[in-house]
Amino acid sequence: MSSIQIPNLPAVIGLDGSELFEGVQAGNSVKISLAQMIAAARITTPITFPIAVSVGGTGLISFTVGDIMYASATQTFSKLADVALGNAIISGGVGAIPSYGKIGLTTHVSGVLPVANGGTNQSAALTQYGMIYGDTTTSMASTAAGTTTTVLHGNAAGAPTFSAVSLTADVSGVLPVANGGTNITSYTIGSIPYASTAGILSQLLDVAIGNAIISGGVGAAPSYGKIGLTTHVSGTLPVANGGTNITSYAIGDILYASTTGILSSLADVAIGNAIISGGVGVAPSYGKIGLTTHVSGTLPVANGGTGVTTAPAEAARILGYTATATAAGTTVLTNTSTQYQLFTGATTQTITLPVTSTLGTGWSFHIVNNSTGSLTVNSSGGNLVATIIAGLSAMITCIGTTLTTAADWEAGFTDFQTLTGTGAAVLGTGPTITGAVSANATSGNGAIVGQQTLNLAANVTAFGPAIGDFFGATSAISLEASSVYEIVIYAVMTKTTAGTATWTLTASSAPTRIIGTYQASPVTGIAAGAPITGFTGSQGATTAAFSATGSLTTAVNHAFQFVVQVQTNAATSFKLQLTQSAGTATPLAGSYYTVKKISATTGTFV
C-alpha cells in the first residue's frame, strides 16, 4: 500500500473527528476522515480504501451532491440519491430502507396542526357546504350549510350563520336607478313611479277615483284624468269586448242581437206600438199588443182589473148587491161578498167584516140600513167599527191588512133615507149626540148651544142644618175650561123644622165669575103670597152665597128657581148647597138642573 500524503493539515484544536481530509493514493485523490485516521492508527493491519465500516469507515469512496447515507444492511452504508424538490425522506419501517416521497397526510402525519403553525387546530369532520370560521383565537369550526336563498351573516356575539337578506336590517343607503333601484325612499298610497327625466324616477300621485293614467306624449310625463271618448279612444268597441260594434243610431233605435255575437238596431215606428218578441232565434218587431195572443194571467183589482177570468164573479161583487132581512142575528161577510149590502126588516142585526189579511186596502162595503132597527158592524175580531141607525147608510173601507181590530177599518156615513127642504136631512130615528153642540155665530145672529138636563128621580135623604149638597153627594156637574155656561136650577124641598135657608153656589176650581139670582115661593110655602128673591155674585172665588131667607114654614113644600151664569177658568165641578138655621130639609123628586154651554161667539152692541 502506498503512503498517503496529507498536505495542509489543519490545527488540531477545534477538530471533532468528522472532518474529511484530502489525500492521494496511487495517483488518485481520496478523502479520509479524522476518525478513520485514528482508527487506522489503532490497528496493526494495513488500511485499504474505501475504509470499511468495521474499522470506522463508510465503505464509500465518493458522493453525489444531495446524497444521504443510510445503513442498507448490517455493517453497510448506501447512498440515498437526491430527488426533485418538494419530496421528503420517508421511513421504510423497521429493517427497511428509507426513500424520498410526498408526505401522506393520512399516513405520515399525527396530531393536529395548531393555528400558530398554519393549521386549523380542528380535527373534527367538516360540514358539507359549510363555511370555515375561527370559533376561538386558536381553533376553527364550520357553519351549517346555506341554501340558494341565503347568504352568510356575521354575528359579533357568536358564529356566523346563513340566512336570507333583510332589506330593512342588512341594507343601507338607497338603491339608485343605475343599479336597478328607484332612488326613492318613501311613497304616498296609490302613487305610481315613472321616469320624469332620463335616469330619474318620480312619483305620479293618486287622484280621485274614476280617473285613468293618460300619456303626456313622447318625452312628457303622464297624468291622471278622464278618458276622453273623442280624443283617447280609437276604433269601434266590438261586441266581444262589451261594445255594440255600431257607430251611429237613429232617434228611437233599440238594440237587439240579430245573429249570434252581432247587435243590430230596431228602427222606431209610429206611437202606440210595442216591441213584440219574434220567438226564440227570431228578431223582435214593433206592433200592437194582441189581447188574445200577447197577454197571460189575470189583471188583479189592485191594477185596475177584476181579478177574475169569468165576468160574472167580480162584476157581481162590485155591481151586484145582497139583501138581508134583519132578525137579531149575525151576517158574516167574506172577500167574496158583494160590495152593496142592503138590510131590511124590523129588528137589529150584527155584521162581521172579513179578516183584513184576505183583502187589499181600499176594499169597501156599502151597507144600507132600510130596517127599523140599528145595525152593529164589527171587525173580524169582534171590535165595534160603526153603528148604523135606521134610515142611514155607511161606506166601510179597509185601510190596513194586518189587524183584526177596528183600526184596520174606516167608517163613513154616506146618505140618509129621506131629505126635506133645501139641504135639511131628516133621520128616521133621532141620533144620540154625546158631545157638546156649539156653533160660531156672527154678531147679531143666533148661536146654537149645547143643553143638558139632570133630574132628581127620587127624593134625597133629609140633611141639615149644616151645609149639604142639595142634589146629593154625587150631584156635581162638570164644566169645561174657558167656557160660559147658563145654568137654571129648579129646587123643591120640604122643611122639617121652621128656620132660615142660605143657598150657596160652589165650584171646585175658582171660576172667572159667578152671577146668580133666584125667585122662590113665599116663606109659607108654595101658595099665593109675596115671592122670595135673592142675588149673588163673585169673581175668582170658589163660592157665591145668597142672603138668608126668612124663616120657612115647616111641613110644607118650598120651591126655588135659580138662574146662574158661570164663566170658567180651569175645568171645574159645580153644585148647589144649602145651609139651614134649624132642622132639616128633604129635596124632592122633580128638582133638576138645566145646563147650557153658550157659544164663544157673541153679539156686539151697536
Description:
By secondary structure, the chain is mostly beta strands. The strands form 14 sheets. Strands 30, 33, 35, 36, 38, 40 and 41 form a 7-stranded antiparallel beta sheet that branches. The chain has a 5-stranded mixed beta sheet with strand order 19-21-23-26-27. Strand 1 and strand 2 (about 30-35) form a beta hairpin. The chain starts with 19 loop residues before the first strand and ends in an 8-residue tail after the last strand.
Q: Concise description?
A:
By secondary structure, the chain is mainly beta. Helices cover 3% and strands 34% of the residues.
Straight-line distance between termini: 201 Å
Structural class: mainly beta
Estimate the global geometry from the Cα principal axes. elongated
Strand percentage: 25-35%
Largest sheet: 7 strands, antiparallel
In quaternary terms, these chains amount to single chain
How much helicity do the residues have? under 10%
Number of strands: 41
Q: What labels would you give this structure?
A:
single chain
List the helices and strands and how they pair.
Blueprint: E1 20-25, E2 28-33, H1 34-42, E3 68-73, E4 76-80, E5 88-90, E6 99-101, E7 132-134, E8 140-142, E9 151-153, E10 161-163, E11 192-197, E12 200-204, E13 212-214, E14 223-225, E15 254-259, E16 262-266, E17 274-276, E18 285-287, H2 311-319, E19 321-325, E20 330-332, E21 340-344, E22 349-352, E23 364-369, E24 375-378, E25 384-388, E26 392-398, E27 409-416, E28 418-420, E29 424-426, E30 450-455, E31 468-469, E32 477-479, E33 484-495, E34 501-507, E35 513-520, E36 532-538, E37 543-545, E38 557-567, E39 572-580, E40 585-587, E41 592-598
Parallel strand pairs: 19-21, 20-22, 21-23, 22-24
Antiparallel strand pairs: 1-2, 3-4, 5-6, 7-8, 9-10, 11-12, 13-14, 15-16, 17-18, 23-26, 24-25, 26-27, 28-29, 30-41, 31-39, 32-39, 33-38, 33-40, 33-41, 34-37, 34-39, 35-36, 35-38
